[in-house]
Specification:
Three copies of one chain form a homotrimer. Chain A is of the alpha/beta class. Chain A has three domains: about 5-75 and about 135-150 and about 235-380, Alpha-Beta Barrel (TIM Barrel); about 385-580, Class I glutamine amidotransferase (GATase) domain (Rossmann fold, 3-Layer(aba) Sandwich); about 595-645, Sandwich (Immunoglobulin-like). The model of chain A has no long low-confidence stretch (mean pLDDT about 95). Chains in contact: A-B, A-C, B-C. Chains A and B meet through helix 2 and helix 4 of A and helix 8 and strand 14 of B. Chains A, B, C: It is an enzyme of class 3 (hydrolase). Chains A, B, C: Pfam families: Glyco_hydro_42 (PF02449), Glyco_hydro_42C (PF08533), Glyco_hydro_42M (PF08532).
């Protein structure tokens, strides 16, 4: 297959077989190329332990193939059938409070359960064996939105095994967890348990290691299924769909085991800024394996799980879909093809809504099929970035532990505070892990790095001429969540040319004024720090002289520090300065609400704002979506999009 | 007994016997006719398993009878003694999270427990045997405010038995619950359990059936006790007291098993609109068995279970009591006769307050006794209605399930939004179930009917010339909570002359303007829908043309649809139009805050507002309460009441 | 040792031994006299059941002693090691919901567990045996912030034993708990359990007795350890550190078992009124044993357990420390000496912060050492009060039970409402229990006494010429939480010259205007009552005549009643009147935000406000802190302090 794949989750077991033919006909009408089948089919495929019922699936795959539609075939392991929980209650997850959760929903399994794994892998093997050579099979889709966490005794044993591998000896574990405090020293391995409801604050080392373990256990689950699949189909790529920007699984680790990254994404139609968070998420997905990715799920209109679930306004679906392609998606898929009649997600919209094909939603779905076909030339093309943003899962887990200076420090907020000004300046960054080689970039942004495992990549990047900016409350702890001797920013002190005596989370109503020759006067918020300057130059300071933005030359480059959160407009000015300081290629600033991204040779324009806007586009272009010529400027209405290819000649 | 009964719960076991004589003397002084005895007496009657201690109760009943006071004798089954829970922990209820609840409060039983039932029925039988012929016995009062729900394994077995009876086969159950989604297919009956805490959303079919089961199990409990009582006293009527407007038990089903309906009602003294909700509840109680009902519990002044519990202002008790009589009550009773000295409800006011009889409260209680005696002529008289409001418990359970377009859609709010304009227009409606024969009414109001079992009663009502109005988000699912094929409003589509493509829950700050020739300009809120008109006429629409109120001629009648919630004043105008359209008998609109209800030949006026009002009352009347003549007009101060009988001649 | 002790919790087991020497050197630099060692050392001292490892502690104590620093040696019983919970799960506490809490935090023990106690006392004995004669040992510090509550079955058995001792027979218990209501009568002792999650409100008698039991069980735990310690070191005083103003343990009872009172106190740097609550707490601590007390823990700067944890502003630590000394503290100590590198409290500040000794915090710590040395003359001196405030734990527990007229009636709020005007008038009161002999005082303030065990002390105080003021909702119940016959204020009715018919909790937006010749016009809030005057004179009344402040001559004195909460300024006027009525010695009213307290012959002035203030100080003084002469007036900047001794001659 070439071009941009288009389709959605297809759950034919919800419908009588007579509907299936109509489905395929409608899919063809809409330009659907690909559907995901079998995500929740375990109970149908294995109605009783050990039984197999593949006949219906054979017919579905044959029918789809006959209709020219390829299949992403799912392993149905995200939702075990009731019989598994009923016969083997130890496979059911236990929450932090000690409640064993019931079946009747989905995801009710303990990722550490050998009983669960054994049943899951046996079915996966039979599935792979049966469909290995089916001509419709294009990709394996393992499980669904991996993220289960369990606190049971089986998990405890698994956790101890993981801890032995990480720490070697109990003495090392006691040191790492700082169990000398509060009399928590473990005298024997079998005393060690997951975090569970306790009288007061729980050991943060234990919580951080449990977060690592939970992520590793899920990656291990994925790997186990992938390895079974590879035995049967070494050439069919394997993915599992990420659930948005989720904290539970280390994205770098999981992507490292996948052949291609896929992503489920549900922006809130009520959030006028949702396109910024979408862009952030899409850039992250593209970065996880440095290449094209699959938008595996989005909604055609409303979802069902927010408190209030309005539909998407007309045109938004198209704008959001093109946005994904612009930022590297080679597939635009939906949950789900046909809206369910029953069950917990019946009010989650489908490509075919309850109202049927004679509806605004289906008409938009059809039009989108045509649009994506027109975008075929962009498939596989790269997005090239000069700026990188560091996102590190261990730091995410650590910085959001409790009993910190502020319970409101949310890592994603910090990332967003740095991403938004880049977006507004028309700059598309990559994301990188904290351990990445950064030499390909001009500017590296570290929104926060509370936990520092190794400062060397940052140091050598700056020494080699790069520009680095680091956000507040960084360099605080090592990988054991233990404060660096000598205080913050620990191993970044020399690089940043400063040290921090005390951190000051501000009240929501505190907005101190900062003055700065370089940035103009602005207000700060959320945070400030009592700093001692050790070589850095003060770029901005509070009225009382407390520095809030600093810059330190180091080697051939410069390291900036933001000890506060500047107001939104000042953040744009600051990032403008950073880009200039880094020598980044200048790009024109797009009008507010308009997204400008270059993928391959195509320049994508998307208007997420409410009103009509005009943009200068020097030179002659053709709009892939309309086939029309564009010369000098483009006018876009609400949710208007353009995909411009330079006209040769 | 004739006239309006007057009294309250009498719990003499809380007091030394020397107080009992004073009680009877004070009751006589207050005009008390009736007391409810024994509601919480299980532990006193059966201090140890199988023992019986009836002596004290013999003395109480004899004393009351000697004082001319009749007795509503309660079965004490709402509150088992500690020994039951201690010896038989399986009788204790288990909550959704799996916590087994303790004794030390009340209501701690599993309605499905055979052990509980066996002990309860044995005591009920002995009670009935002993007092069958006691001359004070006027009525049996079974349990108290039935509403217990349990999620234990005994309940699970009972639930499965109920499900087998409902669905026949497991395949039917799988279909009904749409278990094809999320791999929830049951392979054996013993896998099926009540809804319990699970990782994510729980199957709505399971939840809806569990709601039905819980209601049925409580009705079954009631029936079991009633049948025992009838064996001994076939002629003594049996009731159980409803707890306000409560969702848990299907009112129509429970009332169907009772001989007379009774009701506990505690309006909030802080809510200036509480009389509207009271009127709604009273009309519902009258409708449940289409006749007089008993106000079994109200408070003489403050209650104890709200966050803040102010006393009732002077005069309010009288106004509220007369309101109940006006809307069909043949008894006005209280919880409880004498405020407790100890225990969890000691700050719940009593007819005899902590301050004793020399108090405002007791003086109002005395005066109320005289008022009710004066209202004797109204006892047994009917309230005749031309308007019916549909209230259906299955729909109530279904429409409030989670994962819906809006988590704020509360059925009672929707009913209140329709009831309030009727109240303000001086119209007293009946309530009816969705399956009722509606031919006796001119206007039928369906605030919401998300779940439609059978549209036929509505269809034939309109076809026969009736006027129907249906609120938004109706006609969505069948009785299995499965969306009707072809979309909303499903089986009401032809009747209403429209179909709905998408529903749009609005933000709290959205108040779109609607224009309408018939109703004037108004603002809408909470909801709107994307509609396709299929024959209906548009009565009101948003600025962009989206219809929000429609009217469709059908047969000899008309069916209206409200796709939004009009602002309060517009709702009054709309219901005025509906009444006119229906050809309802015109009644004058009372001043704001004043309630006007006709019961039998008596016209009741109650001023719930803060200021003095005057009303025109054409013709000559006598006020039953004062005995005075009224001619032309009546002036009522705050909480003023009048009960006017036309003067013959 | 003489003078004011200075130091903090020292947890050397968190640090390598090479840090210990640096610690002692820094302590000496800062003027530290005393450290608390071993609070959380159980797992280090007994790494496996029955083992002992005292070597490290020997070295620590020797090192400290060599450095001239004395030791408060802690029993490490607040935080059992993981092995105790792992091997003996029955020692882990169970919460109200039935969850057994895990280790991994601290405080995870059931105070009633014999297994816990046996292990704890064995270690305490070995500790006492080993260090009985160590020259550094100055005081025993038992456990930490006693407050654990458990609902397990072991607790249930202990509770029953306590109940038998209190009530004698089951019949007495049934009477006391008023179990006649709601069928809660117990037929056998083994049916009785602690309050646990139940379907509805729990018996208040059971809850009140459980509160008493929990307090007694903790006092019993303390006593058990104390008795072991006394066996080995009859002359070393024993304390345990109170956790702020905490409800769980009866302060009078626990203090009665201690040799000296100690206190942990963490004012919120964000609360501009925190100094008033601090003063209240400090006066209470001084009162508990009528003498000097130890400030055992405070923070050098930020804490870690609030949602937002800003550091203390420069100078505040000094002001707060001097405030404690002014109100009777003979020690100023911290949690903890050196901020932890790891663990749950690493962001709780230390005397040596993460930033190390070259920091503002450590410089303030050093300066404070010098200040406290200068205040040595005040050590041991008394604070003399003419005013007493009644604080009674049983009343605290009872008045905050649920299902009351207002769920917002918080006893500490009531106490604060009375304390604040005294503070603003420059008056320093004592606290007393409700049973105290009051003859030494001129004015006795009873903010609330819902539960009255014995009115005699109040009666005889007034009869003997004293002035009493009692707050609303007093005299309601007896010690069984049963309402006094005849209504409120029960046994205080004659003394106060009034009775209460109904209590009226006001809405937050209700602020009725009161007029009063004596106090001027003012607004009231929170509460009012419908009163019948029986001899009292009305000092202030609402517009409708309802009395809100009354005064009743009784014997040689006067008893006032406050039926509402006057606005803050009116409360100051009212307390001014009360002081005048009582003939209290007049003191000048200090400027707002300034605290004036006399301890011994020293007059302490502390400016907690934001701006500079000047105070008249008639006569000639020397400021102990500066050694300088003060004559006529003193000027204090923000957080400025003075400790003035009259200059003789």
């Amino acid at each position: 297959m070439s071009g941009i794949r288009y389709g959605g989750d297809y759950n034919p077991e919800q419908w009588p077989e007579e509907v299936w033919a109509e489905d395929v006909a409608l899919m063809r009408r809409a330009g659907v190329t690909t559907v995901t089948v079998g995500v929740f089919s375990w109970a149908r495929l294995e109605p009783r332990p050990g039984e197999r019922d593949f006949g219906w699936l054979d017919r579905v795959l044959d029918l789809l193939h006959a209709g020219g539609i390829e299949v992403f075939l799912a392993t149905p392991t995200a939702s075990p059938p009731p019989w598994l929980g009923h016969r083997f209650p130890e496979t059911l997850p236990v929450d932090f409070d000690g409640h064993r959760l019931a079946y009747g929903s989905r995801n009710q399994f303990c990722p550490s359960s050998p009983v669960y794994r054994e049943h899951a892998l046996a079915l996966v093997a039979d599935l792979a064996r049966r469909y290995a050579d089916h001509p419709a099979l294009a990709l394996w889709h393992v499980g669904n939105e991996l993220g289960q966490v369990c606190h049971c005794d089986v998990t405890a044993a698994h956790f101890r095994q993981w801890l032995r591998a990480r720490h070697g000896t109990l003495e090392e574990l006691n040191d790492a967890w700082h169990t000398a405090f509060w009399s928590q020293r473990y005298g024997a391995w079998d005393e060690v348990i997951p975090p569970r409801r306790a009288p007061y604050l729980i050991n943060p080392g234990q919580r951080l290691d449990f977060a690592r373990f939970c992520s590793d256990a899920l990656v291990e689950s994925f790997r186990a299924e992938r390895d079974v699949l590879r035995r049967f189909t070494p050439d069919v790529p394997v993915t599992t769909n990420f659930m948005g920007l989720q904290r539970t699984v280390d994205g770098w680790a999981l992507a490292g085991e996948e052949d291609v990254v896929s992503h489920d994404w549900y922006p809130d139609p009520d959030d006028p800024e949702s396109h910024v968070l979408s862009a952030l998420g899409f850039d992250l997905m593209r970065s996880l394996k440095r290449g094209p990715w699959l938008l595996m799920e989005q909604a055609a209109s409303a979802v069902n799980w927010r408190r209030r679930n309005p539909p998407k306004p007309a045109g938004q679906l198209r704008a959001q879909s093109v946005q994904a392609v612009a930022r590297g998606a080679d597939a635009v898929c939906f949950f789900q093809w046909r809206a369910s009649r029953g069950g917990a997600e019946k009010f989650h919209s489908g490509m075919v809504p309850h109202a049927g094909p004679d509806s605004r939603v289906f008409r938009e779905v059809e039009a989108l099929g045509a649009d994506l076909a027109a975008l075929a030339p962009v498939a596989g093309a790269p997005v090239v970035a000069e700026v990188a943003v560091v996102l590190d899962w261990e730091n995410w887990w650590a910085v959001e532990l409790d009993a910190h200076p502020s319970g409101d420090l949310d890592l994603l907020d910090r990332v967003r505070d740095c991403y938004r000004p880049l977006f507004e300046l028309g700059v598309t960054p990559d994301f990188v892990p904290a351990s990445a080689d950064l030499s390909a970039y001009r500017l590296v942004v570290v929104p926060n790095l509370y936990l520092v495992r190794d400062p060397e990549p940052l140091r050598s990047f700056v020494a080699g001429g790069g520009t680095l900016v680091v956000g507040f409350f960084s360099g605080v702890v090592d990988e054991r969540d233990q404060v660096f001797p000598g205080g913050y920013p620990g191993p970044l002190r020399e690089l940043l040319g400063l040290r921090v005596e005390e951190v000051v989370p501000l009240r929501p109503d505190e907005a101190p004024v900062c003055s700065s020759e370089a940035l103009g006067e602005f207000t700060a918020g959320f945070w400030r720090e009592d700093l001692v300057v050790e070589g850095a130059e003060v770029v901005a300071a509070l009225d009382d002289g407390t520095p809030v933005v600093l810059r330190h030359r180091h080697g051939a480059g410069a390291a900036w520090y933001m000890a506060t959160r500047p107001a939104a407009d000042a953040a744009v000015r600051l990032f403008g300065r950073l880009l200039a300081d880094a020598g980044a290629t200048p790009v024109p600033r797009p009008p507010r609400g308009v997204e400008v991204v270059r993928r391959g040779e195509v320049l994508f324009l998307v208007n997420h704002g409410a009103g009509e806007v005009s943009l200068d586009v020097p030179g002659a272009h053709v709009d892939l979506l309309t086939g029309g010529a564009v010369s000098g400027s483009v006018t876009l209405g609400r949710f208007g999009v353009a995909a411009l290819v330079p006209q040769s000649g």
